[in-house]
């Protein structure tokens, strides 16, 4: 009977705990959550920087956020988001949904809130690797170390900003800000804002702040360019070449003056609690060595839920958890470490040959359908219906080409392969 530690009570951690609680091979489940409530990145707070305990505030939620994927593919396979007349929901509805999910499955009452994981160290035992997990109760300052057979790392990856290396950025005369600290548009009133990055947050926020700014310059390297018709005070530019004083120089030779450099440049995976003996290295946002983007190859009794991105997140978490628990209870055996390493290296070579950079190691997008299938085939777990990937691809395309109106679309899933949208 295994004792299991789950790090984090966001969607991934809640999903892991939900399945672990009904697994006969598991004797106990501890969910350790640094914040005072569940929900992870779906929790909104006006605060930025550091919390009352001096720890970085993890949520990157801004006040107006609505989902950029339809709710029809955002629930869990056994717990869909309730029917409503909208497909794209406000963030607070997603938090309510996660609370209902945790309550329904008896997860809420076992979460240890305000518990900060400080250190995880593996130690060898006759039965295999055991884990010493040291955590601090932030309320009373008590530090404890407990031993577990398995560790599920579910701390998310939208909490540690990625700051790109741009010549002149550190010396820029105006304000520099990352979207991790963005909450409301009024902070940019009457300013000229350079938005760097056109991912979901970059495009969303660039459009939102046009209502208060003098000018927005959206700098990116998307190819082809988004076909969205933006307001007149937003212009698109290629990548930034350098900054000098208040001037910004672009790769196409053009230049302009701005008051704010607003970085929508994504996040970096960060596991500060993992001792180096855990064997996990993060370099250029590649977390390795991970078998199937999931299993710690050097110590397979540790897994990472939710590392891949551009996916149907909650459903992927569910499949990853079901896959891994089936390896725990003996339904199937993970390959030998040497074979897992070979598979991991082969996948990295294949992705590189198809044009993915190292920083895009865990980006799925068009690859997500095959990823789900490989997890299901190896473990015998039920895969995700192909319609999930189809809806994801359809919505993602409309996001780029019709940003101002796509959230009024209403999706309906007809069966495992067919959906409608109107």
Q: Can you put this structure into words, describing what you see?
A:
The chain is built from seven helices and 22 strands. Helix 4 packs parallel to helix 6. The model has no long low-confidence stretch (mean pLDDT 95). With 422 residues, it is α/β, with parallel strands linked by helices. The protein has helices spanning 11-20, 91-104, 200-209, 313-328, 337-353, 368-379, 386-401, and strands spanning 2-7, 26-32, 111-112, 115-125, 128-137, 143-148, 150-153, 175-178, 192-196, 215-219, 234-237, 240-244, 247-250, 255-257, 260-263, 281-283, 286-288, 290-291, 295-296, 302-304, 411-413, 419-421. The strands form seven sheets. The chain has a five-stranded parallel β-sheet, covered by helices on one side. Strands 8-15-9-10-11 form a five-stranded parallel β-sheet, covered by helices on one side. The longest helix has 17 residues, at 337-353. 23% of the residues lie in helices and 23% in strands. Strand 16 (281-283) and strand 17 (286-288) form a beta hairpin.
């Amino acid at each position: 009977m295994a004792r299991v530690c789950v790090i984090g009570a966001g969607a991934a951690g809640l999903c892991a705990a939900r399945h672990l609680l009904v697994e006969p091979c598991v004797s106990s489940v501890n969910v350790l959550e640094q914040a005072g409530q569940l929900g992870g990145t779906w929790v909104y707070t006006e605060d930025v920087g550091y919390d009352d305990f001096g720890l970085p505030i993890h949520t990157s939620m801004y006040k107006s956020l609505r989902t950029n994927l339809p709710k029809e593919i955002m629930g869990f396979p056994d717990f869909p988001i309730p029917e409503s007349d909208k497909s794209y929901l406000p963030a607070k509805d997603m938090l309510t949904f996660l609370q209902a999910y945790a309550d329904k499955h008896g997860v809420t009452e076992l979460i240890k809130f305000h518990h900060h994981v400080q250190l995880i160290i593996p130690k060898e035992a006759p039965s295999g690797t055991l884990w010493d997990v040291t955590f601090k109760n932030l309320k009373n300052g008590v530090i404890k170390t407990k031993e577990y057979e398995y560790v599920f790392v579910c701390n998310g990856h939208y909490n540690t900003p990625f700051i790109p290396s741009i010549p002149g950025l550190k010396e820029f005369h105006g304000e520099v800000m990352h979207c991790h600290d963005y909450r409301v548009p009024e902070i940019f009133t009457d300013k000229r804002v350079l938005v760097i990055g056109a991912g979901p947050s970059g495009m969303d926020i660039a459009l939102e702040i046009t209502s208060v700014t003098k000018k927005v310059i959206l700098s990116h390297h998307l190819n082809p360019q988004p076909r969205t018709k933006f307001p007149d005070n937003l212009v698109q530019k290629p990548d930034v070449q350098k900054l000098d004083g208040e001037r910004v120089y672009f790769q196409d030779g053009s230049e302009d003056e701005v008051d704010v450099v607003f970085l929508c440049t994504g996040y970096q995976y960060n596991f500060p609690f993992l001792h180096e003996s855990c064997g996990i290295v993060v370099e250029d946002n590649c977390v390795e060595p991970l078998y199937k983007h999931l299993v710690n190859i050097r110590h397979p009794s540790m897994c990472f839920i939710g590392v891949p991105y551009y996916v149907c997140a909650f459903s992927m978490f569910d499949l990853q958890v079901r896959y891994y628990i089936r390896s725990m209870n003996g339904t199937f055996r993970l390959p030998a470490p040497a074979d897992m390493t070979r598979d991991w290296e082969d996948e990295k070579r294949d992705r590189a040959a198809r044009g993915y950079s190292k920083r895009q190691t865990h980006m799925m997008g068009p690859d997500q359908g095959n990823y789900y299938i490989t997890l299901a085939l190896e473990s015998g777990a039920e895969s995700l219906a192909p319609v999930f990937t189809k809806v994801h691809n359809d919505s993602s395309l409309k996001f780029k080409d019709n940003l101002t109106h796509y959230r009024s679309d209403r999706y309906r899933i007809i069966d495992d392969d067919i959906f409608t949208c109107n």
